[in-house]
Amino acid sequence: MKYLFHLLFFIVFPQILSAQETQKMYLSGTGNDHTVNWDFFCTAGRNSGKWTTIPVPSNWEMQGFGKYNYGFAKDSSRGKEKGLYKHVFQVPKTWKGKVINLVFEGVMTDTEVKINGQLAGEKHQGSYYAFKYDISKLLVEGNNTLEVSVSKHSENQSVNEAERKGDFWIFGGIFRPVFLEALPQEHIKRVAINADASGNLKANIFVNPSSENAVINAQLHTIDGRKVGQAIKANILAGQNTISIENNYPAINLWTSETPNLYKLVVSFIEKGKVQHIITQQIGFRTVEVRQRDGVYVNGVKVKFKGVNRHSFWANSGRTLSKSISLLDVGLMKDMNMNAVRMSHYPPDDHFLTVCDSLGIFVFDELAGWHGNYDTKTGTKLLKELMVHDENHPSVIFWINGNEGGHNYELDPIFPQEDIQKRPVIHAWEDFGGFDTQHYRDYNYGIGNYDNGHHIVMPTEFLHGMYDGGHGAGLEDYWEKMWVTPLSAGGFLWDFVDQGVVRTDKNGILDTDGNRAADGIVGPYREKEGSYFTIKEVWSPIKMEAKEITSAFDGKLNIENRYHFTNLKNCSFTWKLKDLTTSNKIEKTGTAIAPNLKPLEKGQISITLPQDWQQYSVLYLTAFDAFKKEIFTWSFKIVLPQNIAKSMVKTTGEKPVQIVEKDSLFEVQSKDLTILFNKKTGLLQGVKNAKGFIPFNNGPIVQEGATNFQNFTHKTENGNIIIESTFDRKSAYNTLQWTIYPSGWVKMKVNYFPAAYLTTFFGVNFSFPENEIKGVEYMGNGPYRVWKNRMKGNQFGVWKKDYNTTETGEIPFVYPEFKGYHSNMYWCKFLTKSQDFTVVTENEDVFFRLFTPAFKTDPYQNYVLNFPSGDISFMQGIAGIGSKTNRVENTGPMSMKHIFYDYEKEPKRAIELVLYFDFTGK
């Protein structure tokens, strides 16, 4: 009998509980991965003037209707483009007698709603906010007809100024879900909760007043359903519509971005001993405090925000997203070791905030405004809709009242009036409320303010990531200063995703509106650019000190705990030894004990390596967080390039090398190889082996420097041919020596001086036709290209890259890009359409450059691609890169030009570069 009772309880009780909860019935789909077709009529643009169908939710441009608009563009369809929707539905008979609301999660932009031909209420103006109508009295039994008229642009000019004139795509349509909710006549309308770090919980409960006295019962549960503490009970007098409750939970687990502990508060409305209505809110206990002239504190701990701006965007559905996309995006942010996100420039989908709650991301939620703002009446209404929708998410810790001048100051006092948590309010790109949030500061100007100002510095946009500039480029300089500066609260990169929209009017191309929308760290479908991995390393909560691995290495590495709330003993570490010279040698792996380091403490991690560790090429160390997610993998080189060169380069052969002079050339024969050098300049003119010509020539050209090799002589030495120039301090201070071995290998040694005290790059160039290359295989850091101010994020290893023409932020979004600078080369095999050849160096810190990416148009002339002449280069200093808003030289020390202070032009002071070439075709 006891078993039967429990069985019936678990079968029946959930059904009773479900009946008491708010019931929901979707009229649309739930996102871009689940839609429902409605009847549709577009009044202007493509496919207009006829009734057809459209999936809901969606943006109608993405479905082939109307006109695509970017916010800066003059729109000839303004005021003309509307969408008329019709949908027939039936209400469950069990809902009879209930209050039935029609809820829209988001519609662009003015929305007029009719049920069975009657207006449901006043027209709603504003795109990104959930709104509802009580349609109980408008419904009939059987079929009900819903009609929605949507104007892409608002009749309210302030709405257009705030939402429709901006640096982003402008869409139209019912772009978020539509549903019905059924509630009992006596019900809970809203629960506003403040759960703080002391364990204290306060809630304001708004009810549909009853004619009878009633009771509110609130019970806290763990996320898996276990009760926490005693229930809170409070009486509601007849006609009363608001009540406040309070309780303390002394042993509560707090919510942070590192420990996203969640609870459920189940609030019941009880009348005459019967539960009328139940609302369940997912909450987290945490306290956000701004200490003026100091910083932002969460649960009493000072935090720095590693943040990014995020538009709600997907390439083929515009602003219509899904929970799976929210999971993807937050997962990528967490993978980059971010802890914060700014909602630019409007509130997000509810499921995005839910995912931020559960995975742990601080959210800065924003009332829309972009250089323009809502009028006070409209803004007040939309602000309240924002608050009701988002207020209980523990991830939401700041409100932002508009962006870059789009602030209505009359709305500022309404935020704390409506918000039970009294969250801080800031203005993006303004010195306001004790926060200096100015955008895109030069490094020097910005750091000057950090050190000399008095307000908390927290740029809500910095390092604008147009194309491949910004984001990772300069980030390490900015972040290291932010980290040690007391008044810095971190900042937010611009921005997360390239907004390449599928143009259904242009055969499905991905359009970023030129350079305007190519600002992301990831592509339209979340393709990872090089900056993704730079950010992952620079923002790693475990700071790994650089270490040269020598024979004296004792297995100890210096580290710093840059978590705010986590002891490193809760993390874990694994290591791996790998031999990159052979595939036959088995890797060796192991674990390392995580040190007991509190947040902000420094210490060491010890790795117990096998006795033969020096026989391997590289040591990898991977850190995992408390949830077993990878933080980062660092690589430490064990072998030096001179050792690899010694093992690879063959010098001996059966026959001595022969040389003859023919007109203006030295013609050298070694085995089946013929090499031609210019007698006057010493430059390589041609290479031929038994298989044919290799079109690698016209080098080495010194850059930035003088290619002034002169007075070449040649000699035979130990069966080798040596061709070398003569040093002259005035006219031939750069020298070149070629050594051709009987094996067919060729050695080049260049001693050179950069042209000036400050240089953008320095090294040597060669020519090679781009249409002949298929790819490269190389030992070095990879697989992504680098810039002088974006070196982090790669690992040392052997990489293979196929040729592609990808230009960052443009079609095709295929990464890693092939063209550009690559760091720490030991050797590189060039895979060509005719025959391959290999280049090896014995120098450390050599870069190889593969061709030149296409120059991008930048009206500000800040994003500049600096590459040497020629096609393939071997560099010892490379260029940095700027961004949309900052020239390269203004983004920190790493971005500055190279300094070479020596005008003596003496051979011993020259920079030396040694390369070995294998042209034998093996």
From TrEMBL:
SUPFAM superfamilies cross-referenced by the UniProt entry: (Trans)glycosidases, beta-Galactosidase/glucuronidase domain, Galactose mutarotase-like, Galactose-binding domain-like
Top-level taxon of the source organism: Bacteria
Signal sequence segment: 1-19
GO molecular function, one term: beta-galactosidase activity
All copies of domain Beta galactosidase small chain/, residue ranges: 716-840
Reaction equation(s) it catalyzes: Hydrolysis of terminal non-reducing beta-D-galactose residues in beta-D-galactosides
Enzyme Commission designation: 3.2.1.23
Top EC class for this record: hydrolase
GO biological process: lactose catabolic process
Cofactor(s) recorded in Swiss-Prot or TrEMBL: Ca(2+)
Keyword Ribonucleoprotein on entry: no
Domain Glycosyl hydrolases family 2 sugar binding per the UniProt entry, residue ranges: 52-184
Span of domain Glycoside hydrolase family 2 catalytic: 288-507
Family note: Belongs to the glycosyl hydrolase 2 family.
Protein name: beta-galactosidase
